[in-house]
Write a structure and sequence with these properties.
The chain has 423 residues and is an alpha+beta fold. The chain is 39% helix and 13% strand. β1 and β2 form a beta hairpin. It starts with a helix and ends with a helix.
Length: 423
Amino acid sequence: MKLYFLILILLFASIISSAQTAVSDSVFSKVTTNQAREQRYKFLVDTTIKQYLADPLNDENEGEWNEALWSMELLQYKDEFTKQKLAVAWSQAAQRSDEFQKNLLETTYSLYKKEFKTQALQLMQQTNSVSIFIRCAEYVLRADSINDKAIIAASIKKKFPTDNSTGLQILRSRITAIQSVSLPPLQDIFNTDFLKGQTVIYSLQRSNRDYAGLVIIRKPDGSFLKDSTGNYFHTAQLAKAITAYPFYITNGNTPQGILCFSGFDVSRLLYIGPTKNLQLQLPYETTPDAFFADSSLIDSSWNKELYASLLPASWKNYNGIYESFYAGAVGRSAVIMHGTTIDPFFYKDQTYYPQTPSLGCLCSYEAWDSSGHRISSNQQKIVDALNSIGSSNGYVVIIDIDNKKHDVEINEVKSLLDGLNKQ
C-alpha cells in the first residue's frame, strides 16, 4: 500500500473512524457522510493537487508531488494545470527516485492514453530498472503497439539480455502475441468436476474492464446458488483497477484465473470500509498445500503444471486462465473481494459509474446515505449468500468472457446454468 495513501488516512482521522455500528440493519461509516466526502474532495483538490503541485519539484517535496499524483489518479482529475505539471515531472523523471517514476507512470497511464508516449519511450531507454522499463513499455505499447513492438523487443535484448524474470517474460509474450485464443467452453469450467466439492465464486468480466462483471456462486454439490425467488444468485462486481494497468503490474487490473478463498475479514482501510471482505490468495502468495487444501503438497513448490492440474482439459492451453498464476509469480498480493466507501461522484463521467474501481481487487458497489448509513451493498449480498450455504472457504475464478461493451448480465449464462443444474 502506498505511503501517501496511508498518510491521507491519518490526515482525515478527525472526520473518519474505523468503528462501525448497526443502525436499522445498516452498517455505519463516518467516511461516507456528505460532510466527510465534501471535506475529503476539497482537501484532495485544493491541497494535495493544487497546492502541492504549485511548489517546484525537488528532492525536498518529491513526497508531496507523490501525494498529488495519487490524488489525481484517485479522482481521475485532470485539467491544463495538472497536465502542465505532469510535463514538468516528466522533464525531471530520469533524475527522480524509482518510487516517483513508478507513481508518475501509474498516474500518466491512468489519465492519458498516449499524450506522454515520447517521454515514456525516453525513460524506457534510460532506465536500468526492470519494473520501470515494463511500465514504460506498457504505456508505449498502448499508445502505438504496432510500430513500437520492435523497439521494445530490441531494448529488452540490449538492456536485459540474460534477465528471465517473470515480468519480462510476460512482456515478451505480450509483444510477440499474434492473436488471442478463443474462450474455451464455459460449461467445462462451470461443471461440477472442476474443483469438485468446493464452493466456487465466479466473477465473469469483460476484457474491457470499464464495464461491470457479474458474480455467481456454485455450491459444493455442483449446483448454482439461487435466491429466495428461485432466480440464480447474481450481483455486479468491478474488476477494474483505477490505474488500468495490465494484470501483471502491481495495482493493475484484477488478474483472470483461480484464487483461493480463505474466510472473511473487516478492513480498516479508508476506501474499502467496514463491510466484510473475502480474503483471497494468489498462487505463490500462499503455499501449494494451503492453496489446494492438500497436506500431501506440503513440500511442493509452485510451477505451471501444478496450477494447470486444477483446470479442465479444454482450458489448459488458454493463456487467460493463467493470469493469477503469473501475477502471483511476479509478486502481486492482497487481491481481495471487498466493498467500497469511495464516493461514486469521482467517476460520474466514466462508463462504469456508479461502480468504483480499486487498486486491483474485486470491488462490489455499495450505496451510503448522507448520514453515513449503508443502504445497499453488493458485497454484503455475496457474504450473505456464502453464509446461507455455510461456506467460508473455496475458490474464486475470474474469467473475461468477451469484449462486449456493456455490463455482464445473468441472461448471458442463464441457459447454461439451467442445463448444468439439471445434471
